[in-house]
């Protein structure tokens, strides 16, 4: 079994509000956001979340389009480090 | 790489730390450009109003600029003012309703070009209103022209080679103009480029509103915002461009608190 | 009824406060300054606010904000100062705020500015033009009522004579009913999705895009209703008049005096005075002028109300200007033509010409 990534928080993303500005990507202090390959109805890519989120809210703060909501788990979750489909 | 489902809230027990918008912002899209800093500043202000329990007190006087488009989502009572004229309207509202939390929302073209006398007079008179300046150094709504806060070297639609002091003159710093005035209780400037800056902006809003509630005079908060469209740069470069061009000229920090000028050591 | 000897400016200010005005902002300018002085002195004791604004632009801005909270609020100036306020007037009118404006004009040269919606866009102010301070006091109460009833600005067209003449007037307090205003800003709808946005182009909360066309057309419909309902006119001796003189404002008092004297001497002369400059009493004017061979228009300007006279007559009879620009060296519009002997001489000359043409 591979390493497990502790994940303390998570987000929701309102995909249709995203305008693809990508300001959230460098804002995330642990680099768990990447832009999708799929496009939303506007024709823009939108952020996708990998394991490891701390719920710090940096993405929420810097987003000009109110895309994110931020959550903190009562009990941190663990995800396998490599591979896998969407959970 | 595992992609986590972010289309709905977590199934497991979790506390929501931040909802995607404060109660005073109506659901829906706004029409501002990708990477615009103005919605971030507005969201900060409305979050703070809500956290302070003042949602039902707030009344706004809004100027004319790109941010005017935000007013369809802005869920406080407000007057749509003319370019530059919000401070006097806010004065009339506050004088008749001193119990209300009265704010203005204006861009640099609005406040520092057209409306410079209004903000200075309201400040000198010590009106207990909170004036928000969204400063991106351009007239965004008309296509990115030079304003009174465009910095030397900044490229705009009518300073394509960069603002040249000999030909176009110098930018005006509102914190410099307002801090010395007797009627002014709070003066601060912040940005919205990083999460840390945005947290600072929120603290400044809170202090500004406390100044109004305590009757300590006009509270002024200037927020430097990104305008990649008006600056003719890629969206992702907005924050870096702002920090490289505007922040060196327009200092970040609190300049006057509770009516006392803050010494440079006390500044950020 | 009790009487006090006061100058016109004081009467205007006190009547406004008694009518419920609780906010006033202005900038000193002759001959308006005394209205501001009296407001500054008396408004605080009535629980209101009077601000000596740093400019006319800021004065109208402050009044705009006060109106938005539902208060009865007013400003004032002179034609030149109103020029500065025009952009705000246009926005305030199309935002349907009940502004009252005290225009202490420098004479009669500002008829067009007042009646044609001096700023941008399709709008009108109701304009009440008193002949003397007694009528002006009535107009003050009427102005605040009309402004609230129609949610539209009302201007009182006064002048130097009106403001600076002292007369013995009745300023007893009246009981004034203030209407409720659901549209006024108070924060109560914040966060409900329906917070109020007082604006001039029909913006609404949560709506993408704006529909100014529908909004502005509805305002035009309102103006048609006001035009039908709110005209006022004064006429004398028009039934059998051969020659009729039309005049307005304080100058009309001189004309009315002359016409009454000439009637006593047997002249078949009539007199018409529009009291509302907008809406102009078109139908009443046309009816009163019927039968006259010519209408002499006495106004102290280059010819402004005469255009509305001609539009009212639509060719029934010619309208001839018998006044003209007249001012003393101060430029405040109190000129040598404001003299009943001179006015009489002018009217007699025109009357003689019209009578001779009829006999021929």
Could you name the key traits of this structure?
heterotrimer; A: 87 residues; mainly beta; Alpha-Beta Plaits; two-stranded antiparallel sheet; 2 helices; 4 strands; globular; C: 360 residues; alpha/beta; Rossmann fold; 2 domains; seven-stranded mixed beta sheet; five-stranded mixed beta sheet; 12 helices; 15 strands
Quick description:
Chain A has about 90 residues and is mostly beta strands. Chain A has two helices and four strands; from the N terminus they run βαββαβ.
Report on the structure:
The complex is a heterotrimer of chains A (87), B (268) and C (360). Chain A is built from two helices and four strands. Chain A is mainly beta. Chain A has a domain at 17-75: Alpha-Beta Plaits. Chain A has a two-stranded antiparallel ribbon with strand order 1-4. A two-stranded antiparallel sheet of chain A has the order 2-3. The two termini of chain A are 18 Å apart. The model of chain A has no long low-confidence stretch (mean pLDDT 92). With 268 residues, chain B is an alpha/beta fold. Chain B is built from nine helices and eleven strands. In chain B, strands 3-2-4-5-9-8-10-11 form an eight-stranded mixed sheet, sandwiched between helices. Chain B has a two-stranded antiparallel sheet with strand order 6-7. Chain C is α/β, with parallel strands linked by helices and 360 residues long. Chain C has two domains: 4-169, Rossmann fold; 233-359, Rossmann fold. Helix content of chain C is 41%, strand content 19%. In chain C, helix 1 (8-18) crosses helix 2 (33-42), helix 3 (56-68) runs parallel beside helix 4 and helix 9 (249-264) packs across helix 12 (340-359). Chains in contact: A-B, B-C. Chains A and B meet through strand 1, helix 2 and strand 4 of A and strand 1, helix 1 and helix 7 of B. Strand 3 (77-80) of chain B pairs parallel with strand 9 (197-198) of chain C.
Based on CA inertia axes, which overall geometry of chain C fits? globular
Q: Let me know the number of strands of chain C.
A: 15
Instruction: Note the total helix count of chain C.
Output: 12
> What is the alpha-carbon Rg of chain A in Å?
13 Å
Give the ordered list of helices and strands of chain C: EHEHEHEHEHEHEHEEHEEHEEHEHEH
Q: CATH topology of the domain at 17-75 in chain A, anyone?
A: Alpha-Beta Plaits
CATH class of the largest domain in chain C: Alpha Beta
**Measured distance between first and last alpha carbons of chain A:** 18 Å
Please report the number of helical segments of chain A: 2
Uncertain parts of chain C: none
């Amino acid at each position: 079994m591979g390493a497990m990534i502790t994940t303390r928080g998570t987000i929701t993303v309102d995909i249709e509000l995203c305008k693809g500005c990508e300001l959230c990507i460098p804002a995330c202090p642990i680099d768990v956001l990447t832009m999708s390959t799929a496009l939303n109805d506007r024709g823009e890519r939108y952020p996708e979340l990998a394991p490891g989120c701390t719920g710090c809210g940096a993405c929420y703060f810097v987003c000009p389009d109110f895309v994110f909501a931020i959550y903190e788990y009562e009990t941190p979750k663990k995800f396998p480090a490599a591979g896998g489909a969407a959970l | 790489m595992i992609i986590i489902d972010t289309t709905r809230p977590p199934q497991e027990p979790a506390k929501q730390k931040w909802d995607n918008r404060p109660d005073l912002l109506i659901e829906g899209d706004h029409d501002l450009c990708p990477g615009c800093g103005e919605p971030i500043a507005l969201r900060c202000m409305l979050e703070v109003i809500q956290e302070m329990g003042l949602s039902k007190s707030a009344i706004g006087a809004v100027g004319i600029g790109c941010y005017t488009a935000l007013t369809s989502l802005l869920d406080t009572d407000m007057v749509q003012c003319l370019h530059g004229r919000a401070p006097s309207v806010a004065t009339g509202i506050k004088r008749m309703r001193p119990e209300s939390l009265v704010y203005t929302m204006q861009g640099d073209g609005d406040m520092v070009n057209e409306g410079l006398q209004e903000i200075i007079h309201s400040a000198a008179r010590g009106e207990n209103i909170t004036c928000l300046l969204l400063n991106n150094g351009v007239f965004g709504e008309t296509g990115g022209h030079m304003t009174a806060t465009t910095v030397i070297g900044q490229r705009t639609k009518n300073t394509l080679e960069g603002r040249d002091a000999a030909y176009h003159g110098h930018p005006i710093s509102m914190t410099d103009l307002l801090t010395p005035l007797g009627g002014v209780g709070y003066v601060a400037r912040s940005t919205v480029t990083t999460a840390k800056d945005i947290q600072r902006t929120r603290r400044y809003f809170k202090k500004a509103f406390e100044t109004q509630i305590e009757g300590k005079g006009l509270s002024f908060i200037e927020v430097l915002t990104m305008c990649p469209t008006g600056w003719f740069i890629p969206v992702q470069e907005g924050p870096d461009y702002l920090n490289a061009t505007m922040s060196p000229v327009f200092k970040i920090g609190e300049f006057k608190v509770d009516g006392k000028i803050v010494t440079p050591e006390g500044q950020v | 009824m009790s009487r006090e000897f006061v100058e016109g400016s004081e009467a205007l200010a006190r009547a406004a406060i008694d009518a419920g005005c609780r906010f006033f902002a202005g900038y000193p300018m002759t001959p308006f300054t005394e209205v501001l002085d009296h407001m500054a002195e008396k408004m605080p004791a009535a629980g209101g606010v009077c601000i000596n604004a740093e400019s006319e632009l800021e004065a109208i801005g402050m009044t705009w904000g006060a109106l938005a909270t539902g208060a009865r609020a007013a400003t004032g100036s002179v034609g030149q100062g109103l020029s500065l306020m025009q952009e705000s007037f246009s926005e305030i009118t199309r935002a349907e705020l009940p502004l009252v404006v005290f225009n202490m004009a420098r004479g009669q040269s500002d008829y067009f500015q007042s009646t044609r919606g001096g700023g941008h866009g399709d709008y009108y102010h109701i304009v009440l033009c008193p002949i003397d301070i007694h009528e002006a006091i009535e107009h003050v109460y009427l102005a605040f009522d009309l402004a609230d009833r129609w949610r539209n600005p009302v201007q009182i067209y006064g002048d130097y004579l009106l403001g600076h003449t002292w007369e013995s007037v009745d300023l007893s307090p009246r009981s004034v009913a203030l209407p409720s205003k659901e549209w006024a800003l108070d924060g109560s709808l914040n966060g409900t999705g329906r917070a109020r946005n007082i604006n001039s182009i029909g913006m609404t909360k949560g709506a993408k895009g704006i529909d100014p066309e529908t909004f502005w057309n509805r305002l035009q419909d309102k103006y048609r209703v006001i035009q039908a309902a709110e005209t006022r006119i004064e006429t004398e001796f028009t039934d059998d008049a051969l020659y009729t003189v039309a005049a307005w404002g304080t100058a009309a008092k001189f004309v009315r005096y002359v016409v009454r004297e000439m009637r006593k001497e047997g002249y078949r002369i009539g007199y018409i005075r529009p009291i509302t400059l907008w809406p102009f009493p078109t139908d009443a004017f046309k009816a009163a002028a019927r039968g006259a061979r010519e209408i002499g228009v006495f106004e102290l300007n280059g010819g402004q109300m005469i255009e509305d006279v001609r539009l009212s007559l639509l060719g029934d009879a010619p309208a001839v200007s018998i006044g003209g620009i007249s001012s003393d060296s101060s430029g405040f519009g109190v000129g040598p033509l404001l003299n009943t002997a001179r006015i009489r001489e002018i009217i007699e000359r025109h009357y003689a010409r019209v009578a001779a043409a009829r006999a021929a």
